[in-house]
Amino acid sequence: MPAASSDDDKIKTLREVAEATGDYPAEAWEFVQTGLRFTAAKVHGQALPANGQRHVSGQQLCAGLREYALTRYGMMARTVLERWHIRSTSDFGRIVFGLVEAGLLGVTNDDTPEDFRDVFDFSKFDSDYRIQSKL
């Protein structure tokens, strides 16, 4: 997965992509990129495989982004995503393939935007969320 030379460059590049597309704010693009790392670590663990790639499917990524959003924002997760114009799993796919077009993310020949269609119902995004008690 090609990346910019520093975190500042990466954020600037994501902001440029967001401004060029106009569909989602930069925060949405940053969320998906960070959520991808979260998901890859959940699926593959922290170690980098011998081939240097930790591919996840569109369905795995959608589930991972849901978990990441709930972990990060709790009961406000769906509200935060809606504020960023993310209202379906297809929106995740549009952002992912926007990152691909910008050269910030790689895909396999088998990956398609259709992999993100109707993975789960956003109206039930937080239906099984439980607040974690530290007691």
Please report the total strand number as a whole number: 0
Terminal CA distance: 41 Å
- Name the poorly predicted regions: 1-6
Structural category: mainly alpha
Order of helices and strands: HHHHH
- The helix count comes to 5
Number of domains: 1
Shape: globular
**How much of the polypeptide forms β-strand, as a percent range?**
under 5%
- How much is the radius of gyration in Å? 15 Å
* pLDDT averaged over residues: 86
**What about the largest sheet?**
none
As a percent range, the share of helical residues equals: 40-55%
Show the helix and strand layout.
Layout: H1 7-21, H2 26-44, H3 58-73, H4 77-83, H5 89-101
Kindly describe this structure.
With 135 residues, the protein is an all-alpha fold. It has one domain (7-45, 54-124). 52% of the residues lie in helices and 0% in strands. It has helices at 7-21, 26-44, 58-73, 77-83, 89-101. α3 (58-73) crosses α4. The protein is globular and about 45 Å long. It starts with 6 loop residues before the first helix and ends in a 34-residue tail after the last helix. 27% of the residues are buried.
Summarize the structure.
With 135 residues, the chain is mostly helical. The chain contains five helices and no strands. The chain has one domain.
Features:
single chain, 135 residues, mainly alpha, globular, disordered N terminus
